Automatic annotation (TrEMBL):
Job of this protein: Adapter protein for SORL1, but not SORT1. Delays SORL1 internalization and affects SORL1 subcellular localization.
Name the UniProt record assigns to this protein: Heat shock 70 kDa protein 12A
Subunit structure: Interacts with SORL1 (via cytosolic C-terminus); this interaction affects SORL1 internalization and subcellular localization.
Subcellular location: Cytoplasm; Nucleus
GO cellular component: cytoplasm; nucleus
Keyword check for Metal-binding: no
Gene Ontology molecular function: ATP binding
Record key words, sorted: Acetylation, ATP-binding, Cytoplasm, Nucleotide-binding, Nucleus
Matches recorded under InterPro entries: ATPase_NBD, HSPA12A_NBD
Source species: Colobus angolensis palliatus
Family note: Belongs to the heat shock protein 70 family.
Length: 692
């Protein structure tokens, strides 16, 4: 903590160590700072300087601070996935019934269409046309020359994970190479789900269903950085799901947390155990991967028509074996990313505590598609494949659909080859491009395990298909191994494998082989819908997750008294004969620190001069823990609290005016408030990672 001299400030701190309360803080103004070659935000922005009056203290009045629950009639959760998406809902009066959306138009052979592909089609005029199977099928049926004018996008969610400097203006590239604003596409998709859900609810209710009666939940990967999570909220505002003024109506849920909430409810007949530790449901570890999963899928198919899942208001059998302090890992393996979360049980209510910050990476099933693309490069040449994508975008989509259905047929014990149909336009365009046949290319390529079939198909041996999975599965296993090395993750009792990619027998076998002797490995039967159903449960009771880990360090920029030999000379600011250290990062909370739901961190500051009419508090964040100055590498501005201090005439304002600043943590979003104690004026701000 910085040293300084001056008059005692306000505190009101409930700190157990009273020595920490004896802070003496003084104040300064930096708007007329002397010019310096050193670039300092405090100097260049001309903000009014502030200095703490008291050290940080946490106010544990978490219950009073969790926002009042508005009375919603229904919770609708949208699982916006990289490869497929869907929604589910539950009426608050019947929380044990979760309804999964209507069956979609279209669909692929061998692929259950409980969800729809995350594909979107815009007209040549860039207006929304269709989403999901409808978009894909319409695009497929367009004349090839006409198709080049339409904007078709798929797997675009990954852009939010891979873009380091995400902003409201970030672009996406359509299949025809044209650019379109990402925010627009995400908003179109969410608007589509809103309309579908409200129509279905209205049909059920027999009258128009009001959007204001709906609590919306959107799921995002836990490993997404804060800007990506905020981007999703902005897209929801643009789509008209909720308004910024009524932001509480939308919850951004973390995918593995949602899965975790659903897994608590699992009954024995709703899951398959892979591990060799015990037999559950009549399956032993060895025969589960193949037979058990096939049987479970069959059971699911029979139940699918109802689309209503009963979630009994009890703790499931597996969960009931967990005791206070027991730990488990949720591995959410989806299309784009794999998210690993470690939770701990808190009894008696069975609330969840996040033990270790979410980790993972871009190791979703898309990795298998990229490997297939690399294989095509090797056989036909990268120049041809890239050209083919641009010239025949719809045919490229067809080829990847054909690959997807064969990809799902890959299994550890498979012996017969997998055939992938090449679109006619691929064969035709290749001959024009290269001057020889596809068959000739295969013979010349020296790619073993892939042969040409006279029916116009690539014939892949099971080994060749398994090789496409290997890099992605190896990355997942390696990441899990690293996680299991962490002290917080030792003695894990269960590993829940969820998400669409968890259906892959090759991934199941790899996880079982690597960790089956360390913990029990459980897969929910309807593994692809686990997150969706958990998100509905989370919307019904958002307080179930009690403790999270802060992904970032947060603080504000302040001025402290300059101490010779302690502070860098370039931070010296002299004002009215007083020497100040500028740009000090006053920390509220550290990265990876545990924070309870609704937990408040309070600080008191005071304005630079009694005559000051406005106070500006800039909020900063960093992925690092040991931050000293707001100019340190990796520190980013993410919020501004601007408090008007006028209108105090007739009010006795103390000489040392107290401005209280509060930050509320523990939710998936973070809120900050500044209060002028003298006038009770206050200003609120949501932390903003996209506009600074």
């Amino acid at each position: 903590m910085m040293e300084s001299v001056g008059v005692y400030g306000f505190c009101g701190c409930k700190a157990k160590n009273k020595m920490k309360c004896d802070s003496r803080w003084e104040i300064a103004a930096s708007e007329t700072a002397p010019t310096s070659a050193y670039s300092s935000p405090a100097r260049s922005l001309g903000d009014t300087g502030i200095t703490p009056l008291s050290p940080s203290h946490i106010v544990n009045d978490t219950d009073s601070n969790v926002s009042e629950q508005q009375a919603f009639l229904v919770v609708v959760a949208i699982d916006f996935g990289t490869t497929s998406s869907g929604y589910a809902y539950s009426f608050t009066k019947e929380p044990e019934c979760i309804h999964v959306m209507r069956r979609w138009e279209g669909g692929d052979p061998g692929v259950s269409n409980q969800k729809t592909p995350t594909t979107i089609l815009l007209t040549p005029e860039r207006k929304f046309h269709s989403f999901g199977y409808a978009a894909r099928d319409f695009y497929h049926d367009l004349d090839p020359n006409e198709a080049k004018q339409w904007l078709y996008l798929e797997k675009f969610k990954m852009k939010l994970h891979t873009t380091g400097d995400l902003t409201m203006d970030t672009d996406l590239t359509a299949a025809n190479g044209k650019k379109v604003k990402a925010l627009e596409i995400f908003a179109y998709a969410l608007q589509y789900f809103k309309e579908q859900a409200l129509k279905e609810l209205s049909d059920q209710a027999g009258s128009e269903f009001e959007n204001s009666d709906v609590r919306w939940v959107i799921t995002v990967p836990a490993i997404w950085k804060q800007p990506a999570k905020q981007f999703m909220r902005q897209a929801a505002y643009q789509a008209g799901l909720v308004s910024p003024e009524n932001s509480e109506q939308l919850i951004i849920a973390l995918e593995p947390e949602a899965a975790s909430i659903y897994c608590r409810k699992l009954r024995l007949h709703q899951m398959i155990e892979l591990s060799s530790k015990a037999a559950v449901n009549g399956y032993s570890g060895s025969d589960t991967v193949g037979a058990g999963f096939t049987q479970a899928k069959e059971h699911l198919r029979r139940n699918r028509q109802s689309r209503t899942f009963l979630v009994e208001n009890v703790i499931g059998e597996v969960w009931s074996e967990l005791e206070e302090g027991d730990k488990y890992v949720v591995v959410d393996s989806g299309g784009g990313t794999v998210d690993l979360t470690v939770h701990q049980i808190r009894l008696p209510e069975g609330h969840l505590k996040e033990l270790y910050k979410a980790t993972g990476g871009p190791y979703g099933s898309l990795g298998v598609d990229y490997e297939f693309e690399k294989l095509l490069y090797k056989i036909f040449g990268e120049d041809f494949i890239e050209q083919f994508k641009i010239k025949r975008p719809a045919a490229w989509v067809d080829l990847m659909i054909a690959f997807e259905s064969r990809k799902r047929a890959a299994a550890p014990d498979r012996t017969n080859p997998l055939n992938i149909t090449l679109p006619f336009s691929f064969i035709d365009y290749y001959k024009k491009f290269r001057g020889h046949s596809v068959e000739h290319a295969l013979r010349k390529s020296n790619v073993d395990f892939v042969k040409w079939s006279s029916q116009g198909m690539l014939r892949m041996s099971p080994d060749a298909m398994n090789a496409l999975f290997k890099p992605t599965i190896d990355s997942i296993i390696e990441h899990l191994r690293d996680l299991f090395q962490k002290p917080e993750v030792s003695t894990v009792k269960f590993l829940f494998l969820v998400g669409g990619f968890a259906e892959a027998p090759l991934l199941q076998q790899a996880v079982q082989a690597a960790f089956g002797d360390q913990c029990r490995i459980i897969i929910p039967q309807d593994v692809g819908l686990t997150i969706l159903k958990g998100a509905v449960l989370f919307g019904l009771d958002p307080t179930v997750i009690k403790v999270r880990r802060s992904p970032l360090t947060y603080g504000v920029g302040v001025l402290n008294r300059y101490v010779e030999g302690k502070h860098p000379p370039e931070k010296l600011l002299v004002k009215d004969g007083t020497r100040w250290c500028t740009d000090v990062f006053d920390k509220f909370i550290s990265a990876d620190q545990s924070v309870a739901l609704g937990e408040l961190v309070k600080r008191s500051y005071t304005p630079a001069k009694p005559s000051q009419l406005v106070i500006v508090i800039n909020i900063y964040s960093s992925e690092h823990d040991n931050v000293s100055f707001i100019t340190d590498p990796g520190v980013k501005k993410c919020g501004t609290l601007r408090l008007d201090l006028t209108g105090t005439s007739g009010t006795a304002v103390p000489a040392r005016r107290e401005i209280q600043t509060l930050m509320q943590f523990g939710d998936t979003e973070i809120k900050a408030t500044a209060i002028d104690i003298a006038t009770s004026k206050s200003v609120k701000v949501g932390i903003d990672f996209l506009n600074y």
